[in-house]
Amino acid sequence: MLDQFLHYLIVEKGLSKNTIEAYSPGLNRFLDHLREKGIREWGNVTKFDVKAFLLSLKRRGLSARTVVRNLSAIRTFFKFLTQEGILEANPSEELESPKVPKTLPKVLSLKEVEQLLEQPNLQTPLGIRDRAMLELLYATGMRVSELTRLPINQINLEGGYVLIHGKGSKDRIVPLGREAMKWVTLYLKTTREKLSKGRESAFLFINRSGKGMSRQRFWRNLKALGQRAGIRKRVTPHLLRHSFATHLLERGADLRSVQMMLGHVDISTTQIYTHVTRERLKKVHQQYHPRG
To answer: Cα separation of 72 and 90, whole Å?
Structure first.
């Protein structure tokens, strides 16, 4: 049933591979928990069994965010079982989600972004590729999976935009900006063919073997570049996404436009960045106002 459920998420719901990978561990943990309790039939699972599982996660020291993610996966799974007629009711439906403390996303300052962008070694093909990837990531706020799996035919350098195939199979168009266009053009003209070694690849960014870049490889490259730049924050692709949104709002962009560029379904997800800009304004006021 779990295999059927994951297949349903991919084929019918159009969820990304990353979302499926996030769902699987929690559901497998839940199945192990039920087996340990001697529960072998879905119809025998009660809301108390689900609650006991969530409590076991808390006792293991997992964060409230992880517990919420596990509960979300279980709810969706049981909803699927009721739709399939295997269960009459969803035992997890009435359970309340643990409260997750709201944490403001960290962002890079403009100076830190500049320092990071200057780190790739432009004397090497890989350095030019990395600079183009960083410029594109910061220019568009795209997710790392969207960047590494971006087809070469979805970037329009003449028109100055990129078509991004995002979460839930939703497409969005995002402007590129001058710097990103300049570096991606340089990469395509001078570097990509050297890396491809004659191999064909549908992806814009490729590794030294001519294959598409993995998320993990880019993540490691970015971490190393952040350390080289002397940035004390944990530099991740999502940190650049947060910085993209925050810097736009700080300069007067409207929330709806930022929502569209980030690919957020719900504008409430984008609103977290308005809190970030307010917090930064308060710090500036305290630092520079004579009575701050």
So the answer is: 12
Residues 173, 137, 180, 150, Cα dihedral to 10°: -60
Kindly list the structural domains of the chain, giving each domain's residue range(s) and its CATH number in brackets, ordered by start: 2-83 (1.10.150.130), 110-288 (1.10.443.10)
| Residue 114: CB atoms within 10 Å | 11
Instruction: Read off the pTM.
Output: 0.69
Task: Yes or no: say if 222 and 236 are a contact pair by the CB < 8 Å rule.
Answer: yes
Whether 121 contacts 225, CB under 8 Å: no
Count, residues in the chain: 292
Residue 217 · residue 173 · CB < 8 Å = no
Query: Tokens for 189?
Result: 């003209």
Q: What is the pLDDT of residues 178-199, one digit of tens each?
A: 999 999 999 999 999 999 988 8
In 10 A of CB 160, how many CB atoms? Answer: 13
Chain segment 40-51, per-residue pLDDT in tens: 888 899 989 999
Residues with catalytic roles = 143, 167, 238, 241, 264, 273
Cβ atoms within 10 A of the Cβ of 236, count? 15
- Answer for the pair 146, 238: CB distance below 8 angstroms, yes or no: no
Element spanning 164, H or E: strand 161-165
Amino acid found at 113 = V
Distance (Å) of CA 128 to CA 43, 78, 104, 199: 57, 48, 33, 19
φ and ψ of 229, to 5 deg: -75, -10
CA gap 212, 130 in Å, rounded: 13
Contacts of 77 (CB under 8 A, 6+ apart): 2, 5, 27
Report strand pairing: 171-175 vs 155-156. Answer: unpaired
